[in-house]
Each structure stands twice: as C-alpha cells, then as structure tokens.
Design goal:
Blueprint lengths: L2 H19 L4 E5 L4 E6 H26 L15 H5 L9
Antiparallel strand pairs: 1-2
Amino acid sequence: MPWRLIGLILILAVLLAFIAVNLEHTCDISFGFASVADVPVYVTVFASFVLGMLMSVPFLVSFALRKKPPKAPKKDNASPPPEIIGGDGGPYGID
C-alpha cells in the first residue's frame, strides 16, 4: 500500500474538517494602513502558513550556498622515514 498516498488523504481530510468547522468564523485583518473585514479564519491560517514557508526560502538558499563540500586531504609526496623502508627489522627482529 502506498503510505504517502494514505498520508496525503489523511492530511486533506483533516484540512477539510478544519474548513468545515470554521466556515462561519470570520476575522478582520489590519495591515496598519488598510483593513480587510470578514475574512474566513481558514483563509487566514492557510495564508499565514504559505507566507511563513515563503519567508524561509531565502534562509534555506543562503544556508545551501554557505555549505561547502569537504576538501580532499593533501597528498604528501615525501618518502617514508628510513626505519620503515628497511631499517633493523623493528623490535622483534623480523625483516
């Protein structure tokens, strides 16, 4: 069963129930210089949600631009110390 489809159907059912319960409820929105009267509550809630998501986009983009990929470690072209190449065989005398 596609779980994403079931989740989407449940979310839409909750949204539809929220709208159905708040059909008669209205509010006034004031912008400081203008006012809008009798706006349904569900329109206010959804508009606030969408505007909040839109306001987060610049922060997400700036975070993605700031995130740099890790740098590869420098390769050291120096030869290993002489005791590793062929010294006395180490502490156990193995050579």
